[in-house]
Design a protein that fits this description.
Strand content: 25-35%
Order of helices and strands: EEHEEHEEEEEHEEH
Shape: globular
Helix content: 10-25%
Distance between the termini: 25 Å
């Protein structure tokens, strides 16, 4: 586990792909449990350790996860996430696809879809028009790196929908590398998808100080090459 930031009220860690944030039906040990053990040992806390989960990342996604160490921070973080006051920036590696046609590197573009979530499949479907049970999804993206076969995108979410980045990028013909569920041609060797929560920015829920944190680029040849 890699701790990126911590104080008395919050702790931000760099989640590895394959880790789950909270316990689920798999019974695998969640990241929240690992963080609790870290706090208990580091601060020699007796009894149970409080740790609040304010948001989640999909299991195959890596990057920053913000946890609350106090109930006061958790209540305020929950509201901040709900109100869009926590700004998360994602990086995604996609195939060349449509993103390479007629678009200048660094220029921001907007995607708007209506997403319908299929609970049984644990998958969302994107539509160009409103339909029953659909939720509007908006994101902005720009190209920040390119190789012969891949493009590195920076993505900012305007809304927070189920699998939003994965679904919307796939809908424009650019599924995330390794994301078989959304149309990638092959998996990544480690089962990850090439999507990371790169940066998080918000006003501290208690101290009111500005917090800006970045996760390191994955130690992977393609990630490192595109990030340059």
């Amino acid at each position: 586990m890699e701790v990126i930031y911590e104080d008395n009220h919050i702790i931000i860690v760099n989640k590895q792909s394959g880790e789950i944030v909270q316990g689920d039906k798999t019974g695998d040990r969640p990241l929240s449990g690992i963080v609790k053990d870290y706090i208990k040992e580091k601060y020699q806390k007796p009894g149970a350790v409080f740790l609040g989960v304010a948001h989640r990342l999909d299991r195959p996604v890596s990057g920053l996860v913000v946890f609350a160490r106090t109930s006061k921070a958790l209540t305020r973080l929950n509201k901040m996430f709900a109100d869009g006051e926590v700004h998360k920036t994602y990086w995604a590696i996609v195939g060349k696809g449509s993103v390479a046609r007629g678009q200048e590197s660094g220029e921001w573009h907007t995607l708007e879809h209506w997403l319908v979530r299929n609970e049984k499949q644990n998958k969302s479907y994107a539509y160009d028009h409103e339909r029953p049970n659909a939720k509007k999804a908006i994101l902005k993206y720009r190209e920040i790196g390119r190789s012969d076969n891949y493009t590195l995108l920076e993505v900012n979410l305007m809304t927070g929908r189920h699998h939003q980045i994965r679904c919307q990028l796939a809908a424009m013909g650019c599924p995330i590398k390794g994301d078989l569920k959304y149309g990638a041609p092959r998996s990544n060797p480690d089962g990850s998808i090439s999507l990371m929560a790169r940066r998080v920015e918000f006003i501290h829920p208690v101290s009111k100080a500005p917090i800006v944190v970045e996760a390191p680029v994955p130690n992977d040849t393609l990630w490192q090459a595109l990030a340059k």
